[in-house]
Amino acid sequence: MDAIILQILNGLDKGSAYALIALGLTLIFGTLGVVNFAHGALFMLGAFCAVTLSRILSLSHVVIDESRKDFLGNPMKVEVPYLHEWFGPEVGATIIDWSVPLSILFAIPVMILIGVIMERGLIKHFYKRPHADQILVTFGLAIVLQEIIKYYYGANPIPTPAPEAFAGSFDFGVLIGFDANSIIYPYWRLVYFGFAMVLVAAVFSFLQFTTFGMVVRAGMADRETVGLLGINIDKRFTIMFGIAAAVAGLAGVMYTPINPPNYHMGMDFLVLSFVVVVVGGMGSLGGAVAAGFLLGVLESLASMGWVIDLVPGINQIIIYLVAIVILLTRPRGLMGRKGVMEE
Amino acid sequence: MSKFQLNRRSLIKSGVAVGAGLALPTIFTSSARAYLNEPKGDTVTLGFNVPQSGPYADEGADELRAFELAVEHLNGGGDGGMLNTFSSKVLDGTGILGKKVGFVSGDTQTKSDAARASAKSMIEKDGAIMISGGSSSGVAVAVQALCQEAGIIFMAGLTHANDTTGKDKKANGFRHFFNSYMSGAALAPILAKEYGADRKAYHLTADYNWGYTTEQAVRESTEALGWETVNSVLTPLTQTDFSSYIAPVLNSGADVLVLNHYGGNMVNSLTNAVQFGLRQAEANGKKFEIVVPLYSELMARGAGKNIAGILGSQNWDWKLENELGARYSGTNAFVKSFGEKYGFPPSQAAHTCYVQTMLYADAVTRAKSFDPCAVVEALEGFEFDGMGNGPTLYRADDHQCFKDVVVVRGKENPENEFDLVEIVEVTPVEQVTYAPDHPQFAGGDLGACNSGA
Lengths: 343, 453
Hints:
The complex is a heterodimer.
Chain A: H1 2-32, H2 39-57, E1 60-69, E2 75-81, H3 82-87, H4 89-97, H5 99-121, H6 131-153, E3 169-171, H7 172-175, E4 184-186, H8 187-209, H9 211-221, H10 223-228, H11 233-255, H12 265-280, H13 285-302, H14 305-310, H15 314-329
Antiparallel strand pairs in A: 1-2, 3-4
Helix pairs in contact in A: 1-8, 1-11, 1-12, 1-13, 2-5, 2-6, 2-11, 2-12, 5-11, 8-9, 8-11, 9-11, 12-13, 12-15, 13-15
Chain B: H1 8-32, E1 43-50, H2 57-74, E2 100-107, H3 112-124, E3 130-133, H4 137-150, E4 153-156, E5 173-175, H5 180-195, E6 200-206, H6 209-224, E7 228-235, H7 243-246, E8 256-260, H8 264-275, E9 282-283, E10 286-287, E11 289-294, H9 297-303, E12 311-314, H10 320-324, H11 331-342, H12 348-367, H13 372-379, E13 382-384, E14 392-394, E15 401-402, E16 405-410, E17 421-427, H14 429-432
Parallel strand pairs in B: 1-2, 1-3, 3-4, 4-5, 6-7, 6-8, 8-11, 11-12
Antiparallel strand pairs in B: 9-10, 12-16, 13-14, 14-15, 16-17
Helix pairs in contact in B: 2-12, 3-4, 5-6, 8-9, 12-13
Keywords (chain B): Amino-acid transport, Signal, Transport
Pfam family, one (chain B): Peripla_BP_6
Family (chain B): Belongs to the leucine-binding protein family.
């Protein structure tokens, strides 16, 4: 039982990332009707916002330490971060240590700006083009973005740890009455799950309880009529693209301590996120979130030893298997709306 | 007016003349086709096939730096690097057999088909006489087979799977880098010494050829010393989050986790294992331990602080000569050349590529010919020293180099990003040498060398 609970926790965590990326994807699809294959790249760019801020905070000047030698036998060049000098070593180190949470503040404006530029600069020219064209151009854009990142940051993963306060793990089993050491769970993964929940709630609240959100929802239902009412729906949709980019970016920022980011991480999530969107139902925000968590949990459960022993290879195909079953039984996905992508 | 008269003498004369005339172009042709891409002018072209895109692009970049340095030294540039320490003294900085060394590079993308395509292009379009480089065993095996078919020498780069010089070995292919068996043989005694002989291991293994051979090697070596393997789980190569594979480990009865992962797989699985508290955990009354049989400096850099305290094995380390003395001469010469040119110490991938280029040039010079079959003969059974690994043998039976293996541990407090591992011990070559027909290498046949004629 404890093993199953542990895998459900893992699944919720994985599902958080799937859900956040799929939420942005379906938001863009629902508002602009664009199938955005560059969305994984936005997740990756978010992660590199964290890397960038970490590097900015660690900006240093070089001090020559004559007492130590480098690998060539020359006096050692020691890098001293400016923050250590300005605020003292302790405060400076703490600020650098908290670079990932601080990156949230950095990533929101950066990602919204990237999203708006992407939409205004490229994607708007493809609104009236077939979905195949949109897929090609956004996929191409994703490759360009990841190559740019690789050029500046290299291909190797870059460790971007969580603050020391959230390093390590805790005994979740004891909290719910199991034996000690039966369910050990990392602090940061719990933070990630909580963060995802807050972000999903914030996006839903924004769409549900604000006038802006109401207009966007109306536009998603009938763009033409909203336009005829004199509302500049295009402008609002552009802002929604920016918000979707920010959601993907924040998912990437907070993911960096879980796995060190590399230029390819967006592609790793992209295909799965599309499966999540299709399973949840094209254009359905609730469906995307529900399917994200569902597939995340199923993927984790399928990785259990006895499940693999029972059905070898199931861990590699479970998501696609479930997708096939759901699409056969519910062709519009779990919460798909009639008429979306059916013309 | 002369009258044509046919008699016995004129017939013989004409026959000789016509025969010589006909034979002449044949002699030229057979000379031209003595072997593929025979260098005609005053330069010879080497083909360096490294990952320039994809996940191992940084490792590929380091390989390329080493190749460029080797070419520079062969042509008499720089400080000569290992030419000064190499036990064979036939290379004198005037190129190879008096021909200036040039090179072309290709991108393997760490994909077998792309690597074959770029090697093929370098052989056919650029006239490369030798192909070297690479950061993956899948690529090495594929390119080695291509070079065998084409009649070109392949000096493998970083490839660690047993199969490269095991079941997939080829007469035209040579590997300087160590292999999975050697990692297992070198690590096991040190694991037993550091963690005890009564240990229960849980293997997570990348689901591809290198993963299988590495798991087999480590399993057999550790089980021979008393360890028990409680479970072994294959993980998809495309996996990024290993939490669902790591989470059950602590309750499996195991007290050691062996991560048979390389590259991004290893960085993520190790990071996840540390997140799940395995480094702080206790099992069976012992401290839980994590082992990574093979890791590179770049992987250590990617894993950051999580690499601290992790035991693994390496082909070479830039600190060898400083810490363990003159047996590893050549190390400091190479580190100095590389460090002064590029500003940081070389990786083990860079080292093996540099050495392979030098060994090829040396073999050609000793054979006095670029003919692949002559080069094969010169390399087979060649014993050398002064290339950073101590006394080394290029065994004729399988074209595998036999030398000491370095066992390393991730540093707890590294001084900089290039000083992430410390040398724990060097396992002597005798301890990692195996019979050519060892079961882990069964099934292959070198075959005959192919000169592409």
